[in-house]
Amino acid sequence: MNCRIASFFPLLLVFFLSSAAAVPASASAEIVQHEGKNGLCLNEIGIGTGYAWGSLKGESGDISVYPAFVRLGFSANSLVGIKSSRNTLQLTIEPFLNAVSGPEDGVEAGCALGVRYLHEIASPLALYLEASVAPMYYSIDTVEQGAAGFNFLDQFGAGLQYRVAPAMAVFGGYRFRHLSHADLADRSNDGINTNALVLGFSWLY
Fold first, then answer.
1. Which of 91, 104, 198, 202 has a CA-to-CA distance to 70 between 20 and 30 Å?
2. Bridge partners, residue 98, by sequence
């Protein structure tokens, strides 16, 4: 990792600390039961990081991505008729600011909208599947995507969530990431694929 990409870490640290400070203290005090309530209910606030890797077709070097994100999860069980306490369907919002290192250093910045389905295997362990799409800004010029600018980041993944306390959990998993602008911009659109390992901590409601 060179000194240019290292310069992003103070910004990422501030991002994490400000996100954690914004979490209400009650989130770690107890789980709020949403049974009997209709509509979307906030049931998770989390922060996460990880490592993603891939290569550029038009460049000689590989790229590395260092994610930093906040997760907001909203239970949609009542909307889809899920009554089992072992299963949860979440609608998710995930703003992110990711440092990118490679032939050219830069950032990915955007907000992912998606879904996550959790199934409790055996308390306190749950398996999850997730998918999201994120309008984002990519600050790097590449042969695949042309000049820096607007793109989408599509992500598909799976992982595990482990409850370490009644209202706290850690999670980790794998994500496949595809960056593209869906031909909405007048520049090349070959796409950039990367693989990611992510981990994080959540306050549960």
1. 104
2. 108
Per-residue model confidence as pLDDT tens digits over 124-151: 999 999 999 999 999 999 989 999 999 9
DSSP assignment letter at 23: S
Q: What does the alpha-carbon distance between residue 107 and residue 99 come to, in Å, rounded to a whole number?
A: 5
SS3 96: strand
Specify the pTM: 0.82
Amino acid sitting at position 75: S
- Which among 168, 187, 202, 195 is positioned nearest to 50, based on CA atoms? 195
Is the pLDDT at 121 greater than 90, yes or no? yes
Domain covering 3-27+41-204: architecture: Beta Barrel (2.40)
**13 — phi, psi (to 5°)?**
-65, -45
Start-end of H helices in 53-166: 77-80
Cα–Cα distance for residue pair 84/103, rounded to 1 Å:
49
3 state SS of 40? coil
Q: Under DSSP, is residue 97 helix (H, G, I), strand (E, B) or coil?
A: strand
Q: Which two tokens stand for residue 91?
A: 């609608």
Asked whether 148 and 140 are in contact (CB, 8 A), the reply is: yes
DSSP string, 137-153: EE---BTTTBSSEEEEE
Give me 192's structure tokens: 């950039």
Residues 152 and 179 sit within 8 Å (Cβ to Cβ): yes
